[in-house]
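Input/output pair, single chain:
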Amino acid sequence: METLTPAEVAQALGVSPNRVRQLLREYKLMAVPGSGNSRIPADFLQDGQVLKHLPGLITVLKDGGFRDDEAFDWLFREDDTLPGTPVQALRDDRHTEVTRRAQAMAF
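Output:
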């Protein structure tokens, strides 16, 4: 998985690194677990923006009881029924199915 630093994400989004850190704190973005806030998957960005529907999906996962590492793992776990990963489904604009699955898994 390709990852970016907050400074690289800031440059891609056209915002300050402080704004990227704020997006991480607000769960609009997630960093790789164990990296602090220093590595953000490049797949979370698309066309110079945060991946559409990612912030809402992160909220659904967090509200459903997922810890950060569990949410991150779920986002990148291969699922033959999608097919691909939930992040890839978001990138392909198949957000409705991904969000439905996240809601169904809430505990």
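The CA atoms of residues 86 and 106 lie 15 Å apart. The beta strands are 3-4, 40-41, 45-46, 49-50.
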